[in-house]
Amino acid sequence: PLVSAMGDGWEAAAELEFSAQFPLHAACKSGSAELLRSRLQSHYQHLLLEDPVHQWTPSHWAAYCGHMDCLTVINQVESLFDHPLTRSLQTPLHLACFAGQFMTAKWLLQRGAVIGKEDYMGETPLHKAARNGSLDCVQLLLSQGANRGTRSHSGLTPLDVAQMQRHESCVEALQRNSSSNEAASSCESLLLPPGVQQTLKRCHDNGSFDPVVAKRPRCSDEWRLLEAEQQAEAGPAPLRTYQQVASCSISGWHFM
User: What percentage of the chain exceeds 90 in pLDDT?
Assistant: First the structure.
């Protein structure tokens, strides 16, 4: 009990010292918007100051702790909602997503925070949410168009991170519809005529499409004939497998 009391005393003393030296940081950490507002005038220069504990600014403390009212006060004075830290390059959105602060992350995105900004590890906010199992933030970022395929400097995608940390719900969210999205992107990347793209897309949806990479050295009359044939058919176009399309005698195209 004595050791515990001494530990609590040291922690309280450290907190008081932190509050005295970094009043804006302490206000954002505790979530006191009124205290923050009263201290801003005399400590305005502290808005970009990074404390020695985590090297965070007041905005980063507010984002990590989920204090949107403090972020609002700061944003009224200076637009720092997307400010990266000097060493880690992390933005408030990185910290909000890591801490699972869904409403704060949503607030930051609504004000223009860059969803795919990378930190010193090459990790995006989606990596941070996946690392800590913040499912709500993972779903929020995906709904706002976050790139689930971005790799960190270690070569890890957000899905890899979630799997390593065994956050099954995040793994499921990151895997959901990923294959269909990749297949759709593959079809678009072929630069095929619209009718052919639709056929390949239907083949994928039917389970008979194997994504391929194509290169087109020159135009081909056969492709135009194939497209015209599909467009002229009444009703739904007949479903062709990828093998049928690829086996057509088409000069100028190579499938690999």
Answer: 53
Residue 215's φ and ψ, nearest 5 degrees, are -130, 145
Is the CB of residue 40 less than 8 Å from the CB of residue 55?
Answer: no
Q: Which of 162, 178, 194 represents a domain boundary (last residue)?
A: 178
Rounded to two decimals, what is the model's pTM?
A: 0.66
Q: Is the pLDDT of residue 94 over 90?
A: yes
Residues 73 and 157 in one domain: yes
Q: What is the mean pLDDT of residues 189-198?
A: 50
What residues are paired with 48 via a beta bridge? none
* Structural domain boundaries, residue 79: 2-178
Shared-domain flag, residues 138 and 215: no
One domain for residues 186 and 142: no
Q: What is the DSSP letter of 131?
A: H
Using an 8 Å Cβ cutoff, are 105 and 98 in contact?
no
Region of 150 (left: φ > 0; alpha: ψ -120 to 50; beta: rest) is beta
Q: Is 242's pLDDT higher than 80?
A: no
- Regarding predicted confidence, which is higher, 115 or 238? 115
